[in-house]
Every structure is written in C-alpha cells, then in structure tokens.
C-alpha cells in the first residue's frame, strides 16, 4: 500500500486528571512542559520545540484517561479527502466541533473501542511571549531547561480489545501504516505500531486484557538524547514520582524509554529513537512472535506486571 | 505549497576518489560503514541501519568529487509522475540508465551547476549475510561497533553559483521544500536546506565562491547520539584524519556536527539532529540574515576559512 | 581513622578461565581490552588508559574464579610499612613471590575466606608499541575504539561468609576505608565497599550465601561516559553475551552499571561513577538498611536472583 | 617525590563580584549552584554533591577576581604539619583567621604573585534543609536539576608571572604534584597543572602576559557527563551568557570543557574528565612543548585570543 500522506502528524492528546493541580504541577515543573494557555476546564501544554500552540490538553475530570486524540492534516484539501474517507468508513461520526485555544474546527469520529479521534488543518502556531522567545530562530520556543524538558510530543499508546480491528480503523481513517506488530500464538495481533509519516510510530495499540474500554496506556514525549532520559530518572526520583520501568531499550522499535505515573495515575513516557526513521515507502511491517517477546526488552529487562494491567482510567467497562 | 510526496528520500551518493584504496579503508575501518559489495569500478557502502543495499557508492576516479545523487520515489506511479515533471522542466535530461548492484533502472537529469541526479523506485533491500545479521530484527544489519559507525545516510551539500536557481531545480524536479535558508545582504540566497520528507534536510546547497563547477561540499551520515560524535572525534584523532571543524552545534538546523576530510580530500560529516523533525506541512522557511550568520555557530564557534573554500574536486571549471 | 595512604590503588586482578581462548577473544574483541603480553599460562590485558602493563591477568585454569588481587604501594618505604603491618596482623602469610611480565616482586597474604592478595611497588609502566602509541601523550595508549573499550580498571567484588571480618582484614592489611555498607536486620554486615584513595570504591565484599569459598562476584572496568555503557549493551547483545542486569544506576555508590558473563561464566561489569569522588578525609560510611535495599536500585530496578547466587567458580567448598 | 598527603583537597574559592546580585542570580539560576547561606558581604554557594557547606564564596567587592583559595587538610595533625612547613618556607604568612559560615579557623599565607591561600581542617559538613534532602542518602543534597547543575567543585586557574616559582610554592606549601606542564621554547614553564590527590588537577597556573597581579583565570565545576556540558551550552545561549570557547576537549589533561563569563566578567568553566584519575604514586609530569601546543586543542580547535589576555580583575598592577 502506497502511503496516503493526507495526514501530517499526531498533533495533540487530551488527557484527563482527577488531581488537576497536582498533574499540572508535575507536567510543568517535573516533566518540563510549558503552559501555553489555560481556560476554565483545561491547561494547554507544549514541549519546547512543538510548533503548534499545544500538544497536551490537560483537562479537569472526574476520572483519569484520555479525552481525544488529534491529528493534523497536510492541507485543507487533504482534510476534506480524509473527512470523506472517514464518513464512508462506517465508523461512528461525531461531526465537526469548534476548536479551542490551540486550533480551529475539527472533525471528530470514534472507533468501537471508545477512543475519540479528531482531524483538523486550521491551527495556531505558537507565538512565544517575550520571556519564551528562543535564542535560535529555528526553534519554537526557548530551551528553558526546567525539569525533564522533552523536545516534542512523540506518540501515545491506546488499549483495545481487538488490535486487528483497531488497525483497520487506523488505515481506513488516517492512512496510517503499521511499522511493527506482535503476532500472538493464538492468531491474534497483540500490538501494533502505527505511523503517518517518517516517524517510527506516532500511535501504538496494545491488547486490552482487563476488560476496560477506551483506556489509555501512555502518552510519550521525545527527548533529544538518551542522556536526557537518564537525567530525567534522577529528577523523577528526587520528586517522588513513581518510576514504573526503565530506563532501558525496547526490542520493538529500539526506542530508549522511561515510564512513570503522573500524580493522577496516567502513565507517561520519555523516549528517544536516536536517528531511526522509517524512510522506505514500501516498508514491510516487522512481526514479532510471542516467543521472541519472551526474551524481554532489547537488553533483557523483563516487562513488569503492571505494564500489562495498568491503564487509565483504572477500569471503566463499556456502558457503565 | 503543499508537499508533493512523490519522492521518498535521499537514497545514495556516488563519491569519486583518486586514492580509492585509502578512501575505502577510511570508510570501512574509521568512519565505520559496511562494504556491501564491490565491482570493478566501485565499492558499495552502507551504514548499519540503511535499509537499501548501499548509500555510498565510492568510485575509483581521476579526481575527487561527486558522481551522482540519487533519490528514491515513493512508488512506481510516483516515479512516473516525477519523470514527467522533470521532462517538462526544461532541465537537461540524461535519460534512463541501468541500475547497479544496489538498485534497478533510474532516470537521470542534470542542472546547470553540473551535478547529476537520478530518481528510481526499483531497489535492492539489504539482505545481510550470516555474519551481518542483527540481533534485533527491526534493524537492517548488525550493530558492529567498528569505527564511528553512524546509523544511516543523512544528507549532502552541493556548491552552486546560483542558489536561487538551484532551489527552483529542487522544487521543480524533486518537490523538495526549503526548510531554512541564508538571505545575503546583496539580495542573493547564500544557502538553502532542502527536504522531501520529515527530515530537517537531506540536501543543502551553498554558494560556490571559487568558480568551481559541479563540486561537492560534503556528505553526511547521522549518528544516534551526540556522544557518538565526541567519540568519533577521538577516533579520527587517533587515525590521523584531518578534523576540519567541530564538534559543535550549527545555528542553522541546530545539528550537532563534526567535519573531517577523507584521505582523498572529500569532506565528510557526522551529524546528529536529536529529536528534531519538520512535521508542519505548512512549514515556513527560516531565513537567516548575514548579520545573524556573523554570530557564528550556535555556541559561538567561528566558521573556519576552509569551510568557505574547500570543495571537491579542488577546482574544475565548467568546460575544462 | 585518618587515611593510611601507604597503598596507592588497586592494580590488577588475576581471573581464571576454563575456556581460555573464548574468554580471551571476549576480553579483546568484545569487552575491548588490549593484549599487552602473553606467557604459557596467562594473557596480560589492559584498558586503554591503565598506566601499568596490565590490569587483568587471564589465566588458563581448570575452573573459573579469581587467582589473586594486587594493590600497588605508594613507594618502596610504604610497601615495607605495609608488609610489617600485614606480618603483624596474624593473617596467613604466603610471602614474597617473583613478579611476572607486569611487575616486580610482590608480597602475598591471604584471609580466611580464601582470596589471595598481593602488594608490590616495583612495576612495569606500559610502553606502547608503535601501533598502540596514542595521539595525545597524556594517555597510556591509543584509544582504539574496539568493542566496549573501557578506560581503566575500576574495582572487583569478592564473596565472603563474614563481611565484618573481611572489613577488619581490609583495614588492617591495606588501610582501606569503608565508604558505604549494608547493615542487615540480623546485625550482620551484608556488604561493604572499600577504597584506599579518592575513588568511591576499589573493592566490594558481599556476603556469600551459597557456602562457597574464595569466590569472585565480579570484576569491573570504568568507562568515561554512561553512553559508553548503553553502547556496550548493544555490542554485548550483538555478540550473544549473556546480559545479566542493567544498564541501571546503583543506589549504593550511585554507579551506572551493566553486568554480563564472559564466556567462561565470570561476571564482569562496566561502570561509570560520573564525577563522584570521596574527597572528605573524614568521610563517614553511608549505612544502608535492609528496608532501604528492598526499594531496589536507584531508579527502582529489582535485583535479579542470580545476582545473589552466581559467583565463580560455581561452588567450591573449602577443602575440596 | 612521594606524595605528601597532608592536604585532602581543594575546598573552596572566594570570588569577587562588582555586580553581586547579577552574579548571584547567574550562579544559582543559570550555573545551577545552591545558596547554602548568606551574610552581609558574601553568598555561600555549593554544587549538589559538594560535602562541605560551600565551595564558592561569592563576595561583594569593588572589583572582580579572587579573594582566597582554600584547601582542607586530612586531619588536625596534618594541618599542623602543613602549617609548620609553610612557616618554614619563607613565603608570606598572614596567620590564623576565624572561619566563616562554612568552616572553622584557617591558616592564611600568600605567594609573591598575590593570591591568598588558606588551609584548615575544622569544617561544616552540609546538612540539607528539608527541601534539599536527597532521595539517595549517599549524595550531599538533592539533585535539583536547575540550570547547568554541576556535581562538585573541580579546580581553579591562577595567573602568575613566574610559573616555576609558583610551582615551588605549591610543592612546598601544599605538597602538590605537577601532573602536566607546558615547557616554552624560551625555557620558561608556560603553565602547570597541580594536584594533591587522585584528581588530575585541582589548580592550574598559567603565565600572566598582561602585567597583572593576583589575577584569576577561571574557576571550574565538574559535571557527571559531557552531555551535561552540551546541555549547559544551550542554557548559557538562552540566558545571554557570553560563551568564550568550547565545548571541546583539552589536549592537556583531556578534559571536556566549556568557558563562559559570569555577569561581572569572571571566567567560569564546566568540565568533565570522564574516568581519568592520576593513580600512579610515581606519576611523571607530562611535558608539552610549544610546538605541540600549536596544534590547538585535542580535536584541533584553536585557542582564542581572549583566553590569553582576559583575567579578573581586568588589570590590577602590584602596588596600585
């Protein structure tokens, strides 16, 4: 399948927190994002080199978990092509919504596993206030060096009970490609890694084992170096943040990673992919067997139990 | 201008050497590439995670400099669209050529500044022999750890007497976008950085000041980390390689760099861009003025004189 | 206790291998040491900036484990002072032995847990052959960049059934200081970290749980950076070396570590301490409780089971 | 000469600032030190793993430059031995002074080039307030991650018109050893690097070319990694700090370095020596010729002009 190219990139994620002030303090002072703006329900956060106004919309909510996932289209024409494809797909259509502080109107839709997606083109590029103006004009914002200070949003990981069906959704609605996947012995796909551009992945989906619905596994920002992640581990340690696993290197995608839980319990990651990109237009998905996965991560670290069970919100069954 | 997307990525560069054996030894044992194959005129070299058979074709020649630059199209259909656009462009057409050990037939064309380009789709993906098989199936080849061992080809820099005209060529023939450029006080463009995908650049063109024709400024491979480049500096030092400048950080593009001359005199670079990508489909070129350039590199290093004068071959005037 | 200062530093370790050729190949080509010399029983190995002829004497033997541990005295007079102190200590005296390729005559002695120690002053400073001459005259040898290439020997870890008694031995015979230790709930010392100079430790002793006698836990070389250790993990992976645990950061001493087993089964480590030194002449030992140790390593990694059981030789009881 | 061992380590430096508030803001918020205490004239600053109360005493003054240099003795007895040696040396004796917030009474003396030294044993170990308590009990203070956050004081560099005579002073009064030095073609010593312990140097002296008296060349703190220094370069850049030269690697001592000027003009450095230590008790000074120095720094960077001329205070002649 030739790449579709209508969708430019993962744009932002809306994350719910039932401990909003603590979560906001974490994301600004420990994780190292910048507060671009705030309204009555949400804080709009961004990494220092994200070009859009925000990449994380942190919303006050009665639960944790995910509000919606947004992708930006390549142009107005591309957006219209995508909307047609989505409308024709048979997936649930939520329709056009007005934008917020960070972008213009967006088209929302949903898949059977409960995650809301939106696509849009009209955006707000970040215009830094004086104290956030960068020394180098080719970065979006000042390199402030506060907390873990990742460079840009990287990807998110959603849980779904049927990854094969989730894949069909990603291909149909967003033109995403699978770059790597897990093929279980029982014939099911255990996980899939998707991309719409040269990044190795911007969204992963792994199988929901706990009967949850619409749950988030984690959201990830990218650092420039692996050393940033080692340094982050010390910062998390000093700030009493729960370090779940890492730093280590994933076998899948070869990403150097570190997973922690923000104060409300949402899992967030810092990751570095080095110079790895998916440049081949005819890239064949790398398929990992269950046996291969049992070797653990790249350098042998065993995947810890909570990684298979913890998602946010803790457990919300469909229809509850 | 909406991105064109027909061209997937910079594929390989043919470099000439008049000290072939020394150059080959340098690229394999010091720079750390792998020799994928060899025929009577050329060695086919690759970095450990390049997915194609080769990315550097080192050719025995009576001069140094560059043979040709190759881009891979996204599909057969995309290749055909591009060939039509090139044929309609008015630039010199050299026509179809048979491929070599690394790819199938390719369409060649040329611009007024003497560099030969080719586009192709049919390629040879690297199939590692037993001793080069990687431990992780998602890398193209074993991480051998020999020499500086960059991960993949990154970009090249060509010299041309008229960068504005060169830009028109890149946009017309390859659908390249300018991500950053230098605007001289005299109204001319001093340099332009081009990309066909999410990389910050895959080709740069800077103004030829020495009257040369068809000259190469440098070829660059990407490392996973900045530390790889610091380590490389020690390896170059121990091997008596001429270190021209660096390690330091470019103001333009923010790339961490190190420039050396291989034994025949061609300039080669190692570079790391961290997590920086051009994700915005409507990215506006960053324009640097002459005044801004006079501040030197990002952390203040002054550009050394040879960087403005040394190209390969040393000086070959058009028509000689 | 004021530091004694008679002993300058840990000098070398003799390691036994019952797979000598494989072990030697590992240490030269994967771990990245240099073969300084060889006689009928042993290979004399060194890291690139060790100033003495060798720091690892790898000896062909019917078992794995440790031959002897050597410390260098600060001067001939200091050596004589130490010998007197050792002779007066009541520990077993093995007496003077001739040196080998790497140093002159040495005084040997032993403690009740079966490890042979020696002290000496007369040494052979490494005089690199032409192809090992460094580019910078202040390093002992060329930075070859082969394999994991640690910079210098760092420390070793021995197993003993009574760490308190082992501590008395280290203080009495070598004037070592304890920098950190584990205080078990049962009143015993679970482990002690010793140094004779500004290094945080050059020898650690942890409790032998398996009834073994004279066993080695591991030998460690120091790298300049943590990145060297991340890179080493990939090299070990590609070479099929058993990675036991890491990379991670120790809570005790804060060292960044990676443990692997060389082909014969001896555990070897690569470690980086950053800029940490013990500069205080009146440093108070840091005492870790059992409860504190249960938190795992610095960033939460749990200590794996084999770390408590695997030593070399596998199990040799006293008197067998 | 056998090492003397009476002196444990460089303890602190008193730096003068005629822009005290700006300098203090720089050291706390950009350079990343912690303010341990303050009295009417001075701020007492420390790096996060310095074990003493302070290592930089920043004093409000009508000029820039250096107040005094302090070394800590190994014990009370060692201090008394040193005082006797100093009194017998013929150098100018300033006598005992009361300590300050950071240490007890100290013995002061001076050499002909105008720098005041002191030695003491009685110290104040840092007892962190609640918000500075570290997560790991073996570090002196919380790893706060603010600014460049070096780990500990490393060394300082003084200017003197006769380095040979300065060397005699360091050997006589402090028992320092020369680890490396520059031998000029005119027979003079151009610079010397001194240490009292296993560090490669804690004080350097280079020839004063400008007729100044008692001037400071720079003060340096050590980082755990080279990456910390690359990151610091970006932080300095964003904060408008004058980056004089670097990051690069010194040929002498092999230290990775970055030099900036704090707001009042005093030069400060960040440096990383990797795992390099001087362990040999009979280390022979490495002697660099003028020809060798002309090759520039390790990777070829030329020493910039201000490095030979800029000291603080700008120029104060003896007797003025």
TrEMBL record, chains A, B, C, D:
Entry's Gene Ontology molecular function annotations:
dioxygenase activity
Q: What are the entry keywords?
A: Dioxygenase, Oxidoreductase
Q: What PROSITE patterns does UniProt report for this protein, alphabetically?
A: VOC (PS51819)
Pfam families, sorted: Glyoxalase
Where's the VOC domain? 9-122, 152-273
Query: What residues form the membrane-spanning segments?
Result: none
Instruction: Output the superkingdom of the source species.
Output: Bacteria
Protein name per UniProt: Catechol 2,3-dioxygenase
Organism of derivation:
Rhizobium sophoriradicis
The taxonomic lineage of its organism, from the top, reads: Bacteria, Pseudomonadati, Pseudomonadota, Alphaproteobacteria, Hyphomicrobiales
């Amino acid at each position: 399948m030739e790449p579709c190219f209508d969708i430019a990139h993962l744009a932002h994620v809306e994350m719910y927190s039932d401990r909003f002030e603590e979560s906001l303090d974490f994301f600004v002072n420990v994780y190292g994002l910048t507060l671009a703006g705030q309204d009555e329900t949400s804080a709009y956060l961004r990494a220092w080199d994200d070009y859009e106004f925000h990449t994380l919309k942190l919303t006050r909510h009665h639960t944790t978990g995910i509000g919606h996932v947004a992708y930006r289209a390549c142009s107005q024409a591309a957006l219209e092509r995508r909307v047609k494809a989505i409308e024709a797909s048979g997936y649930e259509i939520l329709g056009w919504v007005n934008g917020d502080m960070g972008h213009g109107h967006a088209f929302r839709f949903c898949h059977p596993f409960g995650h809301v997606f939106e696509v849009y083109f009209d955006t707000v590029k970040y215009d830094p206030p004086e104290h956030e103006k960068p020394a180098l004009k080719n970065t979006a914002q000042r390199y402030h060096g506060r907390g873990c200070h990742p460079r840009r949003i990287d990807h998110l990981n959603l849980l779904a009970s049927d990854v094969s069906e989730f894949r069909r959704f990603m291909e149909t609605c967003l033109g995403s490609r699978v770059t790597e996947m897990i093929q279980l012995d029982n014939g099911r796909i255990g996980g899939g890694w998707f991309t719409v551009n040269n990044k190795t992945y911007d969204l992963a989906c792994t199988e929901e084992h706990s009967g949850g619905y619409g749950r988030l596994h984690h959201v990830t920002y990218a650092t420039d170096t692996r050393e940033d992640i080692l340094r982050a581990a010390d910062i998390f340690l000093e700030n009493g943040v729960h370090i779940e696993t890492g730093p280590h290197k994933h076998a899948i995608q070869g990403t150097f990673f570190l997973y922690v839980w923000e104060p409300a319990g949402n899992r967030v990651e810092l990751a570095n992919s080095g110079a790895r990109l998916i440049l081949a237009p005819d890239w064949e998905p790398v398929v990992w067997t269950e046996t291969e996965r049992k070797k653990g991560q790249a350098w042998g670290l065993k995947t810890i139990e909570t990684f298979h069970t913890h998602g946010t919100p803790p457990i919300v069954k469909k229809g509850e």
